[in-house]
Design goal:
Largest sheet: 7 strands, antiparallel
Structural class: alpha+beta
Number of helices: 19
Shape: globular
Strand order of the largest sheet: 15-12-14-13-17-18-16
Radius of gyration: 23 Å
Strand content: 15-25%
Bound molecules: flavin-adenine dinucleotide
Helix content: 25-40%
Distance between the termini: 37 Å
Number of strands: 18
Mean pLDDT: 96
Low-confidence stretches: none
Length: 541
């Protein structure tokens, strides 16, 4: 559990990279050698200056409004998310579309006023939560009409806690750490920890159907959302938080994953849980991927109270060890595992977490050990789990150091049933690995499972490749990687996204997954809320 006792207040943020500018995650020497061995030496490219990007911001096409600012600084900072194309255009200085204005409403009345203003100006509205989208959700479309980005950051209050019914009502712009701090100071938790936790918002989690590191215990954002308010050009939708209902289709499922197309989520009622007494994570190794997958599948076929399972394939295990920065401990660990029959080039690292009362945790741990030991798992105690907890939100900072060393990082994720998990990992990794052959460039590709279910699992694959001399070429390389990965996912019967959503980058693959009737149903469901199609045009559908 991430214990938060104080509100963190205003967070500093890098303008062209990830996270707090005072935090750096160095690339360890062993990791650098591994990268150079596989990909070749990376070359650091000079970053565009903020000044040069500010100069690209054109004159605003919006009329003046007291809730809207049109200065270049705000328009630059709200013109992108955190996708690799976003990074390439920021670092390379090629970003060329900016919202015409940014609004910071403080309540529902302001939101209604802004929607009316946008209608009058015939403007497109982009709701903006924390700006951590990795799929182009926040990109400004090429339109003749103005674009207004609406940041929810001032709608950040806790409105109500119903301790008896385990419900809490928040405004939707609240950020992860603030939301948890409010709940934890009252003895509760939401338990939603995406890796972007520090900079992502409640509204963004719901609009993208986010999944957190403890989704095994607390569910995805989907399962936490009990009701709430969405305001669109067509009106205000209020969904009440019934414990269960058979009154026709569930409207919550239209809001979830709506990616700003339906309207602006202004508040949400969430299912909360008492803070657990224990939150233990154990490290273990399997001798092979097949043993590991079978172990995970069997764990989830039983009703065992776990908080998380994160299972790295052999390549990811090797890279995790190389990037850990603890060369001596790693060497000792490899020798120990070898004596126990696990060779690191084939061995797979796994973290299994349990949270709840000490009685629940002891019982769950006993059950899980019995199952996993049959798959030859070697248990290593809690040290690896503690180290992971400490760094759980620090890993994305490596993206900054990798870019500075000349390497780009793309992540791809899907979910499939158990019978296809291994086939999907192999197909996906092969397709990505071959995707830059026309440039004679290699990729470093590795995968893990972090949200297993009884019926199957998510697959999360990371790909590293060298940044090219020109941003346009790096973008071309990324397109090849993304296209190869998405085609492999579709071919192998996976969903185009388990957790990041659709945005712009997954849009071409939606119809293959939903079918043309499914796409029409989705589009028509948003119509009463947004009859003129003003909301986050060009995304999702
Ligand atoms: C380093 C890193 C790690 C990540 N790890 C995870 C992870 O572990 N799990 C995961 O699920 N995702 C992860 N993501 C992706 C991203 O953080 C999630 O998609 C997150 O839910 C986005 O929230 P946000 O507040 O930043 O939304 P934004 O990026 O601001 O917006 C995303 C979409 O939601 C819409 N939106 C935002 N707020 C509202 C609102 N109030 N009403 C209507 N629409 C709204 C926007 O219009 C946009 O379409 C990660 C991203 C990064 C960069």
């Amino acid at each position: 559990m991430v214990r938060l006792t104080a509100l963190l207040g205003k967070r500093m943020r890098r303008w062209n990279g990830w996270g707090d500018p005072s935090i750096t995650m160095e690339l360890p020497e062993e990791g650098r050698h591994l990268l150079e061995g596989v990909l070749g030496k990376g070359v650091a490219r000079e970053d565009a200056s903020r000044r040069s990007l500010l100069k690209r911001v054109p004159k605003s096409r919006l009329s003046e409004h007291s809730l809207v600012v049109t200065d270049a600084e705000n328009r630059l900072d709200h013109a992108h998310g955190q996708s690799l194309p976003d990074w390439i255009s920021l670092r390379g200085g090629t970003l060329d579309r900016f919202p015409d204005g940014v609004a910071f409403p403080s309540g529902e009345e302001d939101v209604r006023e802004l929607i009316n203003f946008a209608a009058y100006q015939k403007a497109t509205i982009i709701p903006y939560g924390g700006g951590t989208s990795v799929l182009g959700h926040l990109s400004v479309p090429e339109t003749r009409e103005p674009v207004l980005t609406v940041s929810l950051k001032r709608l950040n209050r806790l409105l109500h806690v119903d301790a008896e019914s385990l419900l809490a009502t928040f405004e939707a712009g609240i950020m992860g750490p603030d939301l948890e701090a409010h709940l934890q100071s009252r003895g509760f938790t939401l338990g939603h920890y995406p890796q972007s936790f520090e900079y992502s918002s409640l509204g963004g989690w719901l609009a993208t159907r986010s999944s957190g590191q403890y989704s095994t215990r607390y569910g995805r954002a989907d399962e936490m959302f009990m009701g709430g308010t969405v305001i669109g050009p067509g009106g205000t939708l209020n969904i009440r938080p019934f414990p269960a209902s058979a009154a026709g289709p569930d409207l919550r499922h239209l809001v979830l994953g709506s990616e700003g197309r339906m309207g602006i989520i202004t508040g949400a009622v969430l299912r909360i849980s008492p803070l657990p007494e224990l939150d233990d994570i154990y490290g273990l190794f399997f001798p092979s991927w097949n043993h590991a997958v079978e172990g995970a599948r069997k764990l989830f076929s039983e009703p065992i109270t776990m908080s998380m399972v994160r299972l790295s394939n052999a390549r990811e295990t090797e890279i995790n060890l190389a990037l850990s920065g603890h060369a001596r401990t790693t060497a000792f660990l490899k020798r120990y595992l070898s004596l126990r029959g696990v060779k690191v080039p084939e061995g797979c690292m796994c973290l299994v977490g349990f949270s709840g009362s000490s009685r629940q945790v002891a019982a769950a741990r006993r059950e899980a050990s019995l199952i996993l030991k049959k798959e030859k798992a070697i248990f290593l105690g809690k040290a690896m789990g503690e180290a992971w907890k400490k760094n759980r939100f620090r890993i994305p900072y490596l993206r900054n150091s990798l870019w500075n060393a000349g390497y780009a990082v793309e992540t791809v994720e899907t979910a499939v049933t158990w019978d296809r998990v291994t086939e999907m990992v192999e197909t996906l990794e092969r397709a990505i690995s071959e995707s830059l052959s026309s440039w004679n460039e290699r990729l470093l590709v590795f995968s893990h499972l972090s949200s297993p279910y009884a019926t199957g699992s998510n697959i999360y694959t990371t790909a590293l490749f060298r940044v090219a001399p020109a941003p346009e070429e790096t973008l071309e390389r990324w397109k090849h990687v993304k296209n190869a990965a998405s085609s492999a996912i579709a071919r192998c019967g996976g969903t185009i996204s388990h957790q990041h959503g659709v945005g712009l980058d997954h849009k071409p693959w939606m119809e293959a997954e939903k079918g043309s009737l499914g796409m029409k149903i989705t589009a028509s469901a948003f119509l009463p809320m947004d009859p003129e199609g003003r909301m986050n045009k060009t995304k999702l559908l």
